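Q: For a teaching session next week I want to show students how multiple molecules come together into a single three-dimensional assembly. I've collected the sequence lines for a complex. Could you give me the predicted C-alpha cells for the whole thing so I can convert them for display?
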Amino acid sequence: MNAMGLLNYWFVIVLMMIGFYVLIAQGNLVKKIVGLNIFQTSVFVFYISMGKITGATAPILDSDWSVYSNPLPHVLILTAIVVGVATTALGLSLTVRIHEAYGSVEEDEINEMDE
Amino acid sequence: MLVITALIVVRLENLFTVAMVTGIYSLLSAVFFTLLDAVDVAFTEAAVGAGISTVLMLGTLSLVGHQQKKRKTVQWFPLTIVTITGLLLMYGTLDIPPFGEGGNPIHGHATTVHYLEESSHETGMPNVVTSVLASYRGYDTMGETTVIFTAMVGVLLLMSGRKRKPSKDVEGDPSGR
Amino acid sequence: MEDNVILRVATKILTPYILLFALYVQFHGDYGPGGGFQAGVIFAAGFVLYTLIYGLETARRVLPLKFAALCGALGVLIYAGVGIATMMKGGEFLNYNYLDSHNAEHGQHLGILLVELGVLTTVFGVMVVIFYSFAGRRDIQS
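A: Of course. Below is the structure for the complete assembly, covering every listed component.
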C-alpha cells in the first residue's frame, strides 16, 4: 500500500470536494450548476482511473497489443457524459425561468422575495 | 492542472469568465482521459463539455446577466463540512487497490475478460467500446437515449412557452408562474 | 455578427466539412474512437456554428425546430424498432444475431450500425432543440 498508487484517487476527491463546496457555498444558481459539473467530472475521472492498466493501450483490438485497459468503465462514462449535458441543459433552462419569474438568480434574494 | 482550473472557477466572480474556464477545464479533462487510454470518452468530453456545454452556458448568461453578487470570500461552515467529507473519503480510498495495476479485481472479472476476448469474433468489431456500448449493453444505451429525449421534452416545455405577465391577483400562487 | 464578412465566408466553408467529419466519426466508430453520441454532438455543433453566424431566423429556415424535435423522437423510435425487429425475427429484444439469418456476425454489424444511427439522430435533434430554445428565448421574453 503506497501513497503513489492512491494519489490519483486523492486528486479525484479534491476535485469532488471543490465541486461540492461550490454547490453548497455559492448562492448563484449558474455557479451552482458549474459546481455540479465539476463534481460530475471528478466521478468520471474516478471511473476511468479504475479501468487503467499501466502499460496497456486503448481498448481497440489490434494484433500488436495484448493488454488493454478495461472497456466497461469507458462505456458507462461515455453515456454518462451525454446524459450529464442533457441534465445541465435542463438545469440551465430552469435557471432562466427562475430569472424570468424573480428577476434574480441569487439564492438569498429569491428566498427574501418568497417571504 | 485540473485542480488549479477548478479552483479558479471557485474564485472568479464574472460568470462569463467562469463559463470560458469551465470549457478549458473540460478540455483538460479530455486530455487526461486520453492519457488514461479512454479515447472514446475523451472524444465525447471534448465535443460535449468544451463545445455544447460552453455554448449553452453562454446562452444562459446572456439571458440572466453575468455578474455574480459579491459575498464573503471564505465561508467557514461549508468549508468545514467539505473538509470533513473529503478526509472521510480519503480514508475510504485506503481500501482501494492501487492505481494502474493489472491484477486489480476489476480487470479479472468475468464480464471484462469476456468483452476483451470474445468481442472480436462475436461482433466482428475492433473497437470494444463500441461493441459493448451498442451490442452487449444495448439496453443501457437505449435507456440513455430515452433520458436525453426526455431532457429535450423538458427543455421544450420550459423554454418554448410564452412569458406570462405577472398580474397582481395571482401573486401568491406559485403554480401561476 | 451578421456583418462580419470573414466569419460568414469561413462558416460557409467550414460547415460542410464539420458535417462530413461527423458522418466519418459515425461510420468509423467500429474501428476507431467514435460513435453515435460523438457524431450527433459534432453534427449539432455544425448547426450551432451556422446559427451563431447567420442568426436564428436563417437557421430555422434551414432546419426548422419541429424537424429537429422530430429527429429527437425518431432516433428513439429507430433504436426501439431494431429491438422489435429482432423480436420479429425470433430472437430476444436487441439480440442482433437474428437480424441476418445466415451470418450472426453480419447481423451484429447491421444491428450496431442501425442502433448507432438512432443514437446519432436523437443526440443531434436534442442538442439542436436545446440550443434553439436558449437562443430564441430572448424573443419570447420581449
